[in-house]
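Hi team,

Filling in the usual template for the complex we talked about on Friday. All components are listed, including any nucleic acid strands or ligand strings, so the model treats them as one assembly.

SUBMITTER: L.P.
PURPOSE: interface mapping
COMPONENTS: four
RESIDUES: 230
SEQUENCES:
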Amino acid sequence: MSTAPPPTGDDLVRVLATLANPHRLRVVAALARERAYVSGLARQLGISRALLQVHLRKLAAAGLVTARLELSEDGKAMNYYEVEPFVLTLTPAVIAAAVETLTVPDSGEQPGAQR
Amino acid sequence: MSTAPPPTGDDLVRVLATLANPHRLRVVAALARERAYVSGLARQLGISRALLQVHLRKLAAAGLVTARLELSEDGKAMNYYEVEPFVLTLTPAVIAAAVETLTVPDSGEQPGAQR
DNA sequence: GGCACCTGCTAACTTTCCTTGGCATGTGCA
DNA sequence: TGCACATGCCAAGGAAAGTTAGCAGGTGCC
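RESULT (copied from the run log):
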């Protein structure tokens, strides 16, 4: 078994599209140091909570971060996010393998089908 | 030294944004098997030349493919593309390092500056 | 000359993403 | 009760990306 799981074509696109954003990269970088809750992270990054929440949602949808709701000592509900220890190696060969499992949204054809 | 060169934050975003597209992934996959010229590749992928050209341009801008203009035996000018043997490993730590060199278009602050 | 192949560009439309602002809810504490 | 903190959602405008269609140029061959 390798350190990198075989990515589905669609998964690969989703993960790449998710990471292809400066804000989301900063979020991952910040969470790589230590987990944080939404409001605190928003202050730390200097962006609005609404914006951060959208990015966190995408990161979570791609499986790159996870959320855990906790109660602070003073009873506040805090939603702590932490980064998932992913390892993704990108090479032409990996991409060629992933393309085999690519869903085609355009014409809805199946993998291996000829046009 | 690792197999992957240290990516700049901006470079990383550019490469990720470039690869986060089904068509461009297919192009890379096709070129990974063998190099091809524009028209032939367009037919092979079932997309228009104009569309392919835009994607090829982005891939070349990100340094993932290279173009070489050649003359076929019958004198036709053929623009052959081939994939660059890139190796990019993506982990939270790599991202954290790349973020340090991220250009901030929003407020234009310098790397290392505190807020 | 006309057809078939190759190359490139640009304008314009459509779709998607990004971002902001506002609103609603709940808690603890002075 | 009012303030400060936490959570979330939704609507709307602006910016960027994707896609198509059309035009123009070049060569070889029947």
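MY TAKE: Residues 17, 21, 23, 47-48, 50-51, 54-55, 74-77 of chain B lie near DNA strand D (CB under 10 Å from a C1'). The mean pLDDT of chain B is 87.

Thanks, L.
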